[in-house]
Amino acid sequence: MDMGFVHKIVDRLLERALEEFDNNPLALQFIRRLSIEGSDLFFDAAMRHLKGSRESNGHRMLAILLLKRDRLQDEIVNPRAGSREDAIELVRRFLAVDPSFDVKLARRLPGRSYSSAESLTGLSAARALDVLDHTSRGRRLLPIVGHLPQSSDPKLSSKATLFVGRRVQSPAWVVQQLKRPEQRVRASAVESLWGLNGPEVLRILEGCAGDRNNRVVGNALVGLHLAGSPDAAGEILGMSRQAADSRRLTAAWALGQLKGEPFAHRLTELMRDENPAVRGMALRSSLSARRLELLRPAVGQLRPEATPLEAMAVEPESTRLALPAPQAGISLRLDGRAYHLGPP
After folding, report:
1. Residue ranges per domain, the chain?
2. d(CA 300, CA 252)
3. Which residue of 60, 230, 234, 262 has the fewest CB atoms within a 10 Å radius of its CB?
4. How far apart are CA 14 and CA 141, in angstroms?
């Protein structure tokens, strides 16, 4: 049987099971059976459904079952498996059913020896740190990731500097990072000050606004704007009109961090810039700004009358899950005996 067709069948069956989860006992039975007897099909289909925006008891059940899969963490942090926003959404869902999920993921980062799992490396490690930065609250991961700003991997070191800096919120710590040679690390140190105020913070940001590196300058100006500086936004707009491509590129990124019609209008203009890199950055910034406005709060909130699904996550009795051969005009049934993909 064509596997693309099988994936469509499973997606439709699982979608129907989610729709009827609260009212049809067969829905939970089908999901359990599929998770065991169609293991890979279930994993792929469940991950697709959890990347969506819908929330229900059925989606929570999918998350509970996927937490048992060894490949789950690798799939979440694999940049080829989905977007950054998808990864953030998935981690939030899994944190809603397992509050220690962020700790388990952080322990797979390089530099710590845990025999239970192999360390993440390269782009996967950087994606993991980035996602954890947006989903793990407070300082609880600092003992696990506190060494990573000193990593020899520049990308990982940069992500770790932002992660640690946002949590320690120490201007003195940022000053120490600004002495380091890696420009991405210095830029991340400045970004970690976003949202903070006070004379010491403003002094650092104002000093970095004249830095030799464009990334550092862009982050400093955004930080000053967030701190209430009346001139920072104008400087970013002015940078977007400078002759140097690198300055306009930085400005196109910085404008995506600001809210307001003048910034959106200038981004639209930069999409017609003569430099393709500037055009691409302006487009990405515009799309990112729109996604941030639509970003939902942490997922996993159940209705007051919701059933504690953890009690349902027990091993089912072994039954044979058989997908029938394709036929037209057959009604979809959750017991797996028949399905329908054609017209009613």
Report:
1. 169-229, 231-313
2. 35
3. 230
4. 35
- Please give the distance of CA 165 from its chain centroid, rounded to a whole number: 19
Report the residue count for the chain: 344
CA dihedral 88, 90, 96, 99 (to 10 degrees): -70
Residue 127: CB atoms within 10 Å: 21
Q: How confident is the model at residue 52 (pLDDT cuts 50, 70, 90)?
A: confident
Same fold, 169-229 and 231-313: yes
Q: Work out the number of other CB atoms within 10 angstroms of the CB of residue 270.
A: 24
Angle at 167 between CA 163 and CA 173, to 5 degrees: 90
**Averaged pLDDT, 214-231:** 95
Q: Which long-range contacts (CB under 8 A, 24 or more apart) does 297-301 make?
A: 298/92, 298/95, 298/96, 298/135, 299/55, 299/89, 299/92, 299/93, 299/96, 300/55, 300/60, 300/63, 300/92, 300/93, 300/95, 300/96, 300/97, 301/55, 301/96
Burial class (CB in 10 A: 0-12, 13-18, 19+), 293: exposed
For 82-117, what is each residue's pLDDT tens digit? 999 999 999 999 999 999 999 999 999 997 655 445
> In the CATH scheme, what is the code of domain 231-313?
1.25.10.10
- Residue 38 CB partners (closer than 8 Å, separation 6+): 10, 321, 323
pLDDT digits (tens, 9 = 90+) for 10-21: 888 899 999 999
C-beta neighbour count of 319 within 10 angstroms: 13
Cβ burial of 311 (10 Å; 0-12, 13-18, 19+) is exposed
Question: Which has the closest alpha carbon to 152: 188, 190, 110?
Answer: 110
Residue 318 DSSP class: P
The tokens of 246 are what?
Answer: 């690198």
Domain formed by 169-229, architecture: Alpha Horseshoe (1.25)
